[in-house]
Structure formats: structure tokens, C-alpha cells
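[recover] target loaded
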């Protein structure tokens, strides 16, 4: 009997083993089928679902499907461009990027109350040495004049320059009150920080500093070439990091004030410095900068423009004369720079202001060939709301206004200057908007030809002390 029981036990064990093995095979087969099905669905989705043309969260146009040519085909360029298009236009790209941002939010190296992604570099350079520029009763502030046509500008009535207001006040910018004295939770990602302040997340670009010598010398050369009949102004605008960087990140952010004062100290007597730094510092509890973008809010541009108008001695409309337009749900460039889930999940309002006076805008290419007349404000996707001013940077824009004071203004700017433009429509008869990066003519000849009386250089500190400043001398001499 015991032998029979043993045989039965062995048979049962063998049966159970085979049964378990069969279940395992079935499970493995099921896993293969499920995995293969998911892969097939994803592959089908890549071919069936529509591919995006624009990434809203990255603020850019995605790769386009290339046009076929025999030359590009045999060189391999055609297939390479197809690969780029295929990879860049994955269906639901922004959705996947959002998921990735939320996953990355769980990663990073913690250091106290700071989460670090990428290389963190402290500013170790000595403070920029500055001196107050000498001012004399002869140093004056000028008033603007602008352009219509070359023929009209040959008439003495077409251009009227009012002598500038005499000032003996030092133009050295003074320290503005600091917002970021507190210790704040934050994330550092590749030159940007994202910090939690006043119940919201804010992105800030860390500033490396610089003397701005190239910028100052170029403006001095502009003034020398233009002579006494044209007023030249410099308004260097700090970015948000100048005011909102918390104390625990201060060592990674150079002083915007030092750089601005350094530039002002090197400007020749004929170049008029406009102090946007101190004025903006008086309004830091207001929404003068965007939280999710590296630009400012139009309200900040309004305060800076008002300061320039005072220096130029022209009328300036109060903000109550403008119609505010609010764009809700704005998440700008700092999200695409950092892929921060905090910024993504904490959008803001972008508010711009439409003038109430009459004006007409004309758009030209970078060689000043007429393209079209079009509104000053150009509709954009929510994520590209800052480009609503003239649609961006790559056009020369001429604006004729109902302000008949004979003053003609040329704005030489980076993208920061775009937000100022609407606020000058009540101050100048004509306005020319020229981006220092997209101008293919000789700027001195252009200014003289069109009878421009005032030239405003307005750009952020990053441009004034960085490579963008090299373009100023290029457009002066090309």
C-alpha cells in the first residue's frame, strides 16, 4: 500500500508541476500578446493620429515634412529630415511633455530647501566697479521726431526737435527695495530657478553679470555719427531676477544694478541714460513681470515707458486711457526652459493694454521693403502671448499716430522693447521699431533719411552685457 501511495504522490506532484508550467506558459503568452498589442496600438497611433505643427508648451513651430528633391535624396538629407519630422511631431507631444515634467518633478538632488537639476554655479566675480557719470548744465535730454517719407522729411516743417530739458541730477541708478529677502523653496534647472513666493511659483533666469562695455561704446559711436540733431537714449531693463531672487539663491545671481551703473558710467555726455531700474523697483508688489516667462508684463513696460517719456519731454497717456485685455492660463518660455511641473500647473494671467488714440501700423521686411499694413496686436496661441506685440521681432514696423508734435522715435530693441511700443502711440507722431538682431540696413543712414529725432535703445540686461550687444555696431556700420 505504501508503494502505491508513493507512486500516487509522485504522479500528483508531476501533474501539479506540469499544471504550474502550463499556467506559466499561458501567462508568458498573455504578456507577449498584451505587450505586442500595446506596441501595435502605439505604432498605429503614430501613423494614424494627427501630428502637431506647433508645440504650445515649448513656444515653437515643430519640424515640417521636407520637400523631395533628387539632390537631397541622394545626399541623405531628405531621409534625415523625415526622421527629424517624425521625432519632433509625435502625436500628443505636449501631453507627453507634461507627463515627463511631472515625473521629473520627483527627481533631482536636494540641498536644504533647494532642489538642483543641472550644474549650479555661484557668481564668484568681483562686483563691477562703477562711477557716476559727470553731468553738466549743458547735458540735455532730447525730444523725439519721426518719419513719414524721405521727401516729406526734407521739409523743415516735417521734423521739429525740441531742446531737451536740462538736468544736473546724477543718472547713476540707485538700489531698489528687494522683494526676495526671504528664504524660499525652489528648484534650480540649467540657469533658471523656480521658487515659491506669495502663494505662486515663479521662474527666474540667473544673471551672469558684465560691464556692458561693448554696448556703451556702440551707443557712443551712434551718437557721434548722428550728431546734435538726434537725441540718443539708453534704457537698460533688469529682468525679474533683479528683484525677486530669494536670499538662498542670491549667490547664483549677479547684480543687475552693477551692470546698469557700469554702462551708464561709460556713456558719453550726449547719450541720455533712462533709469528703469529704480522705477520698476517701486512697483515690485504689482504684476510687472511674468511668473512663467522670461519677459516682463506690459504693466512693467508701462512704467518704464513713462520714465522714458518724462526724459524725452513728451506727453504720455495714463494707463486708464488704455483698454486692458486679459489672456488667462498663460504659461510662457520658462516652462519650456525648465520643464517645471510647478510652473505648468500654476498658470498666470497675461494682461496687455490697447491704446485709445488713432494709429496705423505698417510692416516691412528687414531691408525695409513694404509687406502689409496690419494691427499692432497680432493674435497668438495662449502660450505665445508675449508675441502678440507685432507678432514678434522679425519685422520693421512703422506706426503713424494722431499725435502731431513733429517728434519721430526709432526704437532699437530686443524682444523686451516690444511691450513698450503701444505706450508711445500718444507721445510720438511716428514710431519706427527696429530689432537689433533683424535689421539689414545701415541704421545711421536709415535714421537720417527718415528724419528721426529720437533714438531709444531699450533692451534687457542680458542683451546689453551679452552677445546681442555686438549687433548694435553691426547695424551702425553695415
Amino acid at each position: 500500500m505504501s508503494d502505491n501511495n508513493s507512486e500516487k504522490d509522485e504522479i500528483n506532484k508531476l501533474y501539479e508541476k506540469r499544471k504550474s508550467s502550463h499556467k506559466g506558459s499561458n501567462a508568458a503568452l498573455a504578456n507577449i500578446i498584451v505587450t505586442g498589442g500595446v506596441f501595435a496600438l502605439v505604432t498605429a497611433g503614430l501613423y494614424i493620429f494627427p501630428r502637431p505643427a506647433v508645440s504650445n508648451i515649448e513656444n515653437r513651430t515643430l519640424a515640417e515634412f521636407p520637400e523631395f528633391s533628387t539632390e537631397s535624396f541622394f545626399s541623405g538629407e531628405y531621409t534625415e529630415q523625415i526622421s527629424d519630422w517624425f521625432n519632433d511631431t509625435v502625436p500628443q507631444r505636449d501631453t507627453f511633455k507634461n507627463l515627463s515634467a511631472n515625473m521629473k518633478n520627483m527627481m533631482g538632488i536636494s540641498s536644504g530647501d533647494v532642489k538642483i537639476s543641472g550644474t549650479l554655479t555661484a557668481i564668484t566675480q568681483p562686483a563691477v566697479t562703477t562711477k557716476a557719470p559727470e553731468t553738466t548744465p549743458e547735458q540735455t535730454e532730447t525730444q523725439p521726431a519721426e518719419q513719414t517719407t524721405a521727401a516729406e522729411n526734407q521739409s523743415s516743417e516735417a521734423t521739429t526737435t525740441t531742446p531737451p530739458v536740462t538736468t544736473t541730477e546724477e543718472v547713476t541708478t540707485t538700489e531698489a527695495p528687494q522683494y526676495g529677502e526671504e528664504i524660499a523653496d525652489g528648484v534650480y534647472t540649467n540657469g533658471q530657478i523656480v521658487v515659491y513666493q506669495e502663494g505662486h511659483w515663479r521662474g527666474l533666469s540667473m544673471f551672469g553679470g558684465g560691464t556692458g562695455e561693448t554696448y556703451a561704446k556702440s551707443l557712443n559711436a551712434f551718437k557721434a555719427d548722428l550728431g546734435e540733431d538726434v537725441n540718443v537714449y539708453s534704457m537698460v531693463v533688469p529682468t525679474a531676477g533683479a528683484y525677486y531672487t530669494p536670499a538662498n539663491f542670491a549667490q547664483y545671481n549677479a547684480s543687475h544694478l552693477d551692470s546698469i551703473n557700469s554702462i551708464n558710467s561709460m556713456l558719453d555726455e550726449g547719450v541720455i541714460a533712462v533709469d528703469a531700474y529704480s522705477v520698476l523697483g517701486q512697483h515690485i508688489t504689482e504684476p510687472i513681470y511674468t511668473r512663467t516667462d522670461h519677459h516682463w508684463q506690459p504693466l512693467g513696460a508701462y512704467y518704464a515707458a513713462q520714465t522714458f517719456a518724462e526724459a524725452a519731454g513728451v506727453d504720455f497717456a495714463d494707463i486708464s486711457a488704455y483698454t486692458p485685455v486679459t489672456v488667462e492660463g498663460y504659461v510662457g518660455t520658462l516652462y519650456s526652459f525648465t520643464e517645471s511641473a510647478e510652473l505648468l500647473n500654476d498658470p498666470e494671467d497675461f494682461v496687455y493694454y490697447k491704446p485709445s488714440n488713432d494709429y496705423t501700423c505698417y510692416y516691412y521686411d528687414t531691408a525695409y521693403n513694404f509687406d502689409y499694413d496690419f494691427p499692432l496686436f497680432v493674435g497668438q496661441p495662449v502660450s505665445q502671448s508675449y508675441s502678440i506685440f507685432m507678432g514678434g521681432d522679425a519685422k520693421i514696423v512703422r506706426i503713424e499716430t494722431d499725435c502731431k508734435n513733429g517728434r519721430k522715435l526709432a526704437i532699437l530693441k530686443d524682444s523686451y522693447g516690444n511691450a513698450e511700443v503701444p505706450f508711445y502711440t500718444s507721445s510720438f507722431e511716428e514710431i519706427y521699431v527696429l530689432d537689433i538682431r533683424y535689421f539689414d540696413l545701415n541704421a545711421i543712414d536709415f535714421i537720417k533719411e527718415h528724419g528721426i529725432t529720437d533714438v531709444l535703445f531699450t533692451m534687457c540686461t542680458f542683451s546689453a552685457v551679452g552677445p546681442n550687444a555686438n549687433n548694435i555696431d553691426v547695424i551702425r556700420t553695415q
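[recover] notes: The CA atoms of residues 20 and 388 lie 66 Å apart.
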